[in-house]
């Protein structure tokens, strides 16, 4: 997955007094999040510090603020990202080099503080834009589905697509859902995306199970707990139990890819368990993926 960092979008911050450290921190966090994933190839401009901005050498523009401790920490983080990234030579263009390359390659993800999505050259079906770390999982999910990435790479991409999910059942177990990967992967990604982005908030603000199911349904995802009959069957309910870090939890809630197959069993309350909260934080647990229990 190709990411292009539009360095020109951050230069104005270094011309401000005081420097907007919060805005710089936000874009650097986006770069860090993307760069940390093995499936991402982050591109930056070759000889980044040798370029100029409004007639001022970028090295001076940035390092003139090095005595400011807060800014120095941001510069060091930016340096690390640049040193770990793939460099590309500048090309002749009236655009920033990152936009020029994106136009040339016709696909990829632009990391910038300024959106180009209203521009005539922008192709939503092939191009992505992020300015914060929170936007990256959605962008990665869109890319994975649109580019029809092979099933074998699903686990690798899951780290980027679903950053708020803890896969107790390994991500590659989607093969156990009893679905067609080619035709149903968009639905699977949508369901996991809902769990990643919304389920904890929806469950925390709902008065009962019906309201929880309704909120998911309004977002296009079918979820439910087990029926009363199943809940009364101790043996059946034990099949929904998983043990993580010595803690046994019940993953009775599940999404339904199809009415009779494709079940993703999850547990959204791990953050209420002291042991699990310490180990995985505020993540949703995917406990079981199967055709049907």
Concise description?
By secondary structure, the chain is of the alpha/beta class. The protein has 12 helices and 14 strands.
How is the secondary structure organized here?
Blueprint: E1 2-5, H1 21-35, E2 41-45, E3 52-53, E4 56-57, H2 58-63, H3 69-84, E5 86-88, H4 97-105, E6 108-111, E7 127-130, H5 136-146, H6 154-161, E8 165-167, H7 181-197, H8 199-204, H9 209-218, E9 223-224, H10 228-232, H11 234-238, E10 241-244, E11 247-250, E12 253-258, E13 261-267, H12 274-280, E14 284-290
Parallel strand pairs: 1-2, 1-6, 2-5, 6-7, 8-14
Antiparallel strand pairs: 3-4, 9-12, 10-11, 12-13, 13-14
Region (Disordered): 206-238
How many domains make up the 3D coordinates? 2
Topology, number of strands = 14
**What number is the mean pLDDT?**
93
Order of helices and strands: EHEEEHHEHEEHHEHHHEHHEEEEHE
**Low-pLDDT residue spans:** none
Based on Cα principal axes, name the global outline: elongated
What is the CATH topology assignment of the largest domain?
Answer: Rossmann fold
Strand residue percentage: 15-25%
Count of separate DSSP helical elements: 12
Based on CA atoms alone, the radius of gyration comes out at 22 Å
N-C termini distance: 36 Å
Instruction: Supply the CATH architecture of the largest domain.
Output: 3-Layer(aba) Sandwich
> Which structural class should the secondary elements be placed in?
alpha/beta
Major β-sheet annotation? 5 strands, parallel
CATH class of the largest domain: Alpha Beta
Strand order of the largest sheet: 5-2-1-6-7
- Secondary structure: helix percent: 25-40%
Region (Disordered): 206-238
